[in-house]
Design goal:
751 residues, Arc Repressor Mutant, subunit A
Length: 751
């Protein structure tokens, strides 16, 4: 039963079942290869990978999850499913918290998924994720705060104390909580350190926040109370522990036996509670009970493509086999009828999809006899009566290609080899071995060889064949294949030429990079590393330059290959100590002396005046008595907490501040303290900007915070350089025409 798992994705996305099984068996190599192939063939969605990655994290394989997660994110476009990509990137960063590339990916995905939520920018800044704070602490803070809603419950991480969320003000970094006796306002970082989320039906929530509801539920809904106690104790609770929690505080010892007899009877009828054993009885909670047939049909009828239907049926059959159960005939009949109706509607306009429906129906027919439709016969008829090359080429998944090719010798015995040869340049890497065998059986390898030769000469136009050659054909007999070293050299040369001397259409370039990235990553880059170990010193010099300027392949692949080259030829690599530019230093906040003085005075006024006045209001309100109904007293306490948080922020910023000295301001490039004149290249107008610290910012006077993204885009640039900036919601190209010392008086005043 699907109710045996809490994971909704596993229920609704059958491919995830296989991946979860691989992870549980620690078959990470199989997991890696399956992911690469399935993602490239579009038979697997990013969302279906979240559960397996969470399982890796639960099994304490976080380091492996980090490596595989980075590989997945570099193989597919994360924006195709940004929420799932964020989940995978977060898990990967937990496993490799010092990986700056992963950290940046997580930051960008958070902005994509949550950037439009009020207060998110302030929350991200407060978390320290963008400033080098330990990743796990920063992620915990962001995640717990994003999920906060008024009325929800939290539990202390150090005490058995439950509180209720009253107000969430992320823009100002304040969360108000209702404790059992009082209200408390804290910052997001304090909340993440002190509290965890807790299920709303957890017994501890009912006991602390809704005792009147608990008393009523004991009579009207005892199963809900038992489920809450199970949540409070983990996955299971014994009858004895259940009794100790309820007797005598909520149920008298005399009334217990009657209550328990009724509650046990109700639990036996409830599909979510499982009773095991006799003395004592153990009670366990399960998720919603849903059969695999329910899940399969729910998915099947929402899909619109034969490739998706085929993947759903395959997932269903795998699940039934794993559970040693026979497929349900009723579901198979229903799926066949669905396919028959769809095929009839599209037969004339989309013949390839109609063939795909017949192939899926044929797969269903392999499992059970006496089904209403013979999908195999229908597929054979379609292949005999139509343009087989065009029909098969129009199929949208390698799995459907494979099924059509298996029928091809029976449907077209006289020209199956010619059809296979014609399809070789169009097929995905997973079916090329089958196409080669069909051509070999018909003595038609010559056309196949010509396509292979063309692919090696022009790799960018044949990414699937390059992937297949690198992975290694199943049976190379009768074919002339390039040696690994030659193929590797050609691949790297092509990658380095893309966008420079080689400029194919963007879609072609992107596809080639994706497939080659996946190919070179196979077996943990093992084949590529072996090629690098055999390379000569002279060739290594050129190769290093090519690897360093590779674009569009992701830093993981580039770094792995460069590290392998460094291991073989260490003399080629000289480590230079890098200097951190002042504007990039996260530990220093540069401001003018005047700005620091202003901020110090502002801090002093907060301490000596504002907070002093607040303390007086608290004392005056307290003197009125009956604090539980005193709104003035509660407001003054909330104001005190806000002022304390503001003071802490000011003290932190002042502790990091250092004064900008006029003699340290650069004039040969844009830096902290520079006054920059920009010319609009479109209309010739000019704009003068001075970049100082956050304590000095005055937009009306043209003074900008050097830490703002707008300012950082100009840091380090020189006179004559151009850049595109977003001003007044418009992108405008500017040229830097003059850089002067912003702390020095203008020339007119000096005169």
């Amino acid at each position: 039963m699907w109710g045996r798992t809490n994971d909704e994705e596993t229920r609704k996305n059958m491919p995830a079942t296989k991946l979860l099984q691989m992870v549980r068996e620690e078959d990470f190599d199989g997991f890696e290869n399956y992911c690469l192939e399935a993602l490239e063939q579009k038979t697997l969605r990013l969302g279906e990978l979240v559960a397996p990655f969470e399982e890796m994290r639960r099994q304490a394989h976080a380091d492996r999850a980090a490596a595989l997660g980075q590989m997945v994110l570099e193989t597919v476009d994360p924006l195709s499913d940004a929420p799932a990509a964020l989940d995978i990137a977060r898990i990967a960063l937990f496993g490799d918290p010092k990986n700056d590339q992963l950290r940046q990916s997580v930051i960008e995905l958070y902005r994509t998924v949550h950037g439009d939520k009020p207060g998110f920018a302030a929350l991200l800044d407060a978390s320290g994720l963008t400033k080098g704070r330990p990743a796990r602490n920063a992620l915990r803070m962001i995640d717990i705060c994003l999920a906060l809603r008024p009325g929800e419950a939290l539990i202390s991480r150090t005490e058995d104390v439950v509180v209720e969320v009253v107000e969430v003000d992320l823009e100002h970094g304040l969360i108000t909580l209702q404790h059992p006796q009082r209200r408390k306002t804290i910052t997001p970082i304090e909340l993440s350190r002190e509290y965890d989320h807790i299920a709303p039906d957890d017994f501890r929530v009912l006991r602390a926040l809704r005792p009147e509801q608990l008393a009523e539920m004991l009579e009207s809904n005892p199963v809900a109370v038992i489920v809450g106690l199970i949540h409070a104790h983990g996955d299971m609770i014994s009858q004895d522990v259940l009794k100790s929690e309820l007797v005598p505080k909520y149920i008298s010892a005399k009334a217990w036996s009657k209550w328990w007899t009724r509650a046990r009877h109700l639990c036996q009828r409830d599909p979510h509670v499982i009773l095991e054993g006799r003395n004592p009885v153990m009670l366990r909670y399960t998720a919603d009970v849903w059969t695999v047939e329910d899940a399969t049909w729910d998915t099947f009828e929402k899909q619109h493509d034969p490739a998706d239907w085929h993947a759903t049926i395959e997932g269903y059959l795998r699940e039934k086999k794993k559970n040693r159960e026979q497929p349900e005939i009723g579901l198979l009949v229903r799926c066949q009828e669905f396919l028959r109706q769809h095929r009839g509607a599209i037969q004339q306009v989309r013949p390839s999809d109609a063939l795909g429906c017949a192939l899926v129906s044929a797969r269903i027919g392999e499992v059970a006899s006496d089904l209403p439709e013979d999908g195999r016969a229908i597929a054979l008829e379609a292949l005999r009566g139509g343009d087989a090359v065009r029909l098969i080429a129009g199929l949208t998944a390698d799995a459907l290609w494979q099924r059509a090719l298996e029928l091809l010798p029976e449907a077209r015995p006289e020209d199956a080899g010619d059809i296979a040869a014609a399809l070789f340049s169009r097929g995905g890497s997973a079916v090329l071995d089958t196409l080669v065998q069909l051509a070999r059986d018909a003595d038609r390898l010559a056309p196949i060889q010509r396509v292979i030769d063309d692919a090696v000469a022009e790799p960018v136009s044949h990414p699937e064949i390059i992937f297949w050659l690198w992975k290694g054909p199943r049976d190379p007999s009768g074919l002339r294949l390039p040696p690994d070293d030659e193929l590797f050299t050609e691949i790297i040369h092509t990658l380095s030429a893309l966008g420079r001397s080689l400029n194919p259409p963007e879609s072609v370039m992107k596809r080639f990079r994706q497939r080659v990235r996946g190919a070179l990553a196979l077996r943990n880059h093992g084949r590529a590393v072996e090629c690098l170990r055999r390379i000569s010193p002279n060739r290594a010099i050129t190769l290093r330059r090519q690897l360093e300027r590779l674009e569009g392949v992701g830093p993981n692949l580039r770094t792995r290959l460069l590290n392998a080259l460094r291991d073989v030829h260490p003399d080629l690599f000289v480590v230079h100590q890098q200097r951190v530019e002042p504007w990039d230093d996260p530990n220093v906040l540069w401001n003018t002396g005047a700005g620091i003085d202003r901020k110090t005075k502002e801090r002093d006024h907060l301490v000596n005046v504002t907070m002093h006045e607040n303390a007086k209001r608290i004392g005056e309100a307290a003197s009125h008595g009956d604090l539980s109904e005193n709104s003035e007293y509660k407001f003054a306490l909330e104001e005190r907490d806000f002022l304390r948080a503001r003071l802490a922020r000011m003290n932190h910023d002042l502790s990091m501040s250092r004064e900008i000295e006029p003699q340290d301001v650069p004039t040969d490039h844009v830096g902290i303290g520079s006054r920059v004149t920009l010319r609009n290249t479109a209309d010739g107008s000019t704009r003068v900007m001075t970049f100082l610290g956050p304590f000095d910012t005055d937009i009306d006077k043209g003074i900008y915070n050097y830490r703002a993204p707008f300012s950082l885009a100009l840091m380090g640039m020189h006179v004559g350089e151009r850049t595109t900036l977003t001003l007044d919601n418009q992108e405008v190209e500017f040229e830097i025409v003059e850089i002067t010392n912003g702390l020095a008086a203008p020339a007119s005043q000096q005169a």
